[in-house]
Amino acid sequence: MRRLTTALASLSGGAALGVLGVAGYTAWSLNGPRRPWPDYAFTPFEVRADSEDVRFATADGVGLAGWWLDQPGSGTVVICAHGHRGTKSDMLGIGSGLWRAGHTVLLFDFRGNGDSDDGPQSLSHHEQADLRAAIDLASSRRPDARIVVVGFSMGASTAILEGATDPRVAAFVLDSPFSTMGEVVAANYRRYRLPSEPIVPLADLINRLRYGYSYAQVRPLDAAPALAPRPVLLIHGTDDRVIPYDHAVQLARAAGPNCELVTFEGVDHCGAYFEDRQGYIDRVARFLDAAVGRARR
């Protein structure tokens, strides 16, 4: 019995350390600084798009980098927001496509990514300041233009959170956003057959203590109703392994009747563009024409 008790205590201690390790790794993977090496990336040169390098800063002093693809006669500025650990290069397909369709486009790197400076990173919390700075830049450069945000994954969730309180955004294209931070973390634990309890609450606690914000502060589902009556195009694949399709259903319901949910059967996370690149660009361009119109040249 003594040996059994000792063995059970060791197993219990090992399990506790394992849970703590997973929770700590979760907090670091969501927030910790991490840049790829080598940092080779495509630029507007590869897609033959005319562009201008731009630099601008957030309210908390983080320097951001972007590419401004100008269409002087356009009445619309499209801001493209990439996903977690992505860069503005990821947006070159949709960005150059919408530029060729006649829209001015701003591609930018969130803090800690690409050519932008380091700063406190998160999952759609601190990044709201980055998107706000991008909107400031678009507004100052084209004060008469209507602003649209096209976001993917974290970028889409950030667009909901920032757009809910920023009336300067006229319309939204949201590809694969999550409804709440807690739910998307729990979904990824389940994906790897890990129990969400007690790991999610512990990861949330570490997140608050180490990175200064809680999962409860990142809930696009609560912000989505404030997007109305502005038009929203919501895109999601049914086989999304990172952010389950149910998140899109919840968000579409919360955003109201001006939200159109476009479902891609059998498509994984942010995979709709790659199913039919030109078709995706055309669909978004038609949405923009209907949602915000086109200024006369």
UniProtKB/TrEMBL annotation:
GO molecular-function terms, A-Z: catalytic activity
Matching Gene3D superfamilies: alpha/beta hydrolase
Residues in AB hydrolase-1 domain copies: 78-279
Pfam families: Abhydrolase_6
Record-given protein name: Lysophospholipase
